[in-house]
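Re: weekly structure request thread

Next one in the queue (410 aa):
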Amino acid sequence: MLLDLATGKILVEDIPVPHVGSKRILVRTRYSAVSLGTELRIIRFARASLIKKAVERPDLVKQVLEVVKKSGVLEALTKVKERISMPFPLGYSVAGEVIAVGKDVRDFKVGDRVTCAGAEYAYHAEVVSVPENMCVKVPPNVDLQEAAFVALGAIAIHGVRNAGVSFGETVAVLGLGLLGLITVQVLKAAGCRVIGVDVDERKVNLARELGADYAFNLKSPDPRVVDEILNITSGIGVDAVIITAATKSNEPVNLAGRIARDRAKVVIVGDVGTKFDRETYYRKELQLVVSRSYGPGRYDPVYEEEGIDYPIGYVRWTLRRNMEEFMRLLSEKKINMKKIITHVFSVEEAPRAYEMILSGSSNTPIIGVVFKYSSPEEKQPEYSNIVYIKGVVEQGSSRELRSEKVRIGV
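Done, posted below.
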C-alpha cells in the first residue's frame, strides 16, 4: 500500500523486492505496527486542501518560495508536482524473519527473528531492506506481534530517559494512547510512581490495569486533576511530566506546568501545541525538552547507513540499545502489549482499516493496531524476473529466495 500525496488515497501495489545492500538485511514481514499519531497525521495532511496544507506546513511554503526566487514559478510548480506525484509509504515498525543478509552484516543471519524500525526502511510491506543498526533480534519467548511495536517502545524509552527520572520519583503521563500506555509500563519498570491522565475513561482504566498508580479522566464530571495530583504529591508537584498526547491544543503543555514541581522536567514525546504559559514555567524554572525519536543515532547517516556504533562508554543508550531494552522488557513480562493491541488486520484490509480509524467508527477504543502478513507457507505467489539467492530460512533446511514482487504498505 502507498499513500497518494495528491489525493490522500491509500493504494495497494505490487513492487519489486528491495535490494539487500552490503550493510542491510532483508526481512520478510510477519507483523507491522501502525503509529496512529504519525500515520494519520500524514494521511489527513495529504487529504487537506492546498490552503490548509500551506497553513499547517509553512516550512514547505517557504521552500517553494525559495525555489521561485532562484528558478522561477514554472520550476517551482514542476518540483511541487514531482513531489506530490511520488507515492509515499508509511509505517516504521515491523517484525519478521531474515531472508537475506548483506556481505558486511555481522550480527544477523538468515532465519533470525528480528524487529526493525525507521520511517525510511521499515514500511508496511511484505519484504523490507533495513540497515543493521536499525534492527534487533527478538527473544524466543516474545511474540512477533508484540515485537512489531519496537519503534514505539524505543520512542517511549527514550522519552523516559530524557525525563531523567530515578527510582521512587513521581511522573505524570499526559495522553494514554499507544505511546502513553507503553510509557506508563516503562516508568513502572524503572521504579517510578506513575500518574496517568487522559480524556477517555476506557484508556484511563486500561492505564490502571497496566500498573499506573493513579489515573484521571480530564472529562469526568469533577475534573479537579491539578488539585488531586498536588494532593498525591503532598503539595510538591510531580518530578517530571511526559506528554504523549496528540493534539494541536496547548492545554497538555500548560497542564504540565501546573502539576510539575519546581525545576521539574517536561518532556514532549507526542505532537502537541507548544505555546506554554511563560509565567508558570519561569516561576518554577521548568525544563522543556522535545524528545527525538528512538535515541542517539537517529538521523545520523554514519550510524544508520554505515553501521558505525557509538562507543558505549560515551553513549550508553543508542537507538538500537533502546530497541534491545524494549525486547528485554517484553521478554521479562515487564511490558504487556497484548492488552494494548486492540485491532489486527490482514495487510489486504489495510485501506479499510485506515478509513475505520480515521472515521472513528470502531465500537472499541483504537489503540494498538497491527497488520498481519501471510507467511510463505500460506501464500505462494507466481512471479517473473526470478533471481535466486541461496540462504537458510528454516532450521536444518536450505531454500532459494526469489526476487519477487511484494506489496508495500502505507
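The domain at 162-290 is CATH 3.40.50.720 (Rossmann fold). Residues 380-404 have pLDDT under 50 and may be disordered.
Next request, please.
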